[in-house]
Amino acid sequence: MVAQRRGAAIEISGLRKDYVSGQGTVTALDNVDLKIAPGEFLCIVGPSGCGKSTLLRILAGLDKQTGGTIRADAEGWAVQNAMVFQESGLFPWMSVADNVRFGLDTRGVPRSEADPRVEAALRLVGLTRFRNHYPHQLSGGMRQRSAIARAFVTDPAMLLMDEPFAALDAQNRVILQAELVRIWGQTGKTVVYITHSIEEALLLGDRTVIMTAQPGRIKRIVDVPFPHPRDLIQLSASAEFGRLKLDIWRVLEDEVNRARAEMEL
Ligand code: ADP
Known about the structure:
265 residues, alpha/beta, six-stranded mixed β-sheet, 8 helices, 24% strand, globular, binds adenosine-5'-diphosphate
């Protein structure tokens, strides 16, 4: 088993992010309050430029907030997280297995412990047979599977995903979405998942956070009432799904229009 430890609880309070440059100050996030339960799958939607990636980068510790606090707790162990982006970010000169093991190597995990963890992570994403392939020998979907294995192998408390399947074709996207939900169910990690797609948020998440146009604030949080495990194709064809998608679009529409109007100024 790759991951025995469950996900972290996260509490974000009064979060603010200002970017200061020669052109002036951009407030990317303003007064964001959000509690995320351990093991929750939380999706965030909002127009381009509303601060989604900024929020994820701050959660990952790659950027620092201007104000406010983030508390992340996992039972009895230090919070670690892993990110998955739209591009897999695999090293082209390393095999799939070496790419997956890389995060363990940099943490000084000995090979005797790392190798079984890599094998388990590859099994989790169905890539055992491709362990010795190089990234250029893989399809886009397989590269993203490798990126997911690389994220899970470190046993993170949080998985931070920034539109991880946006560059895939529609069929591969559906397959990977279903795989991710299965893996999440198996491992109980806390997932924060950014997407442009309301549909994707409703298929995958427990809750959907809708953000305002810049400066990014939380406009509404919607509980997604569909029980797990979900048959994603069947769910996306249901009347209830269609109704909820429309409700969320009505909330988001003004923000998308506002963001577009500001870009055209
Ligand atoms: P999203 O992910 O929702 O598209 P971002 O978090 O990338 O939004 O960006 C939010 C806002 O902050 C945008 O207006 C963007 O131009 C600005 N921004 C992001 N990163 C920087 C930076 N490093 N310097 C200045 N402004 C930035």
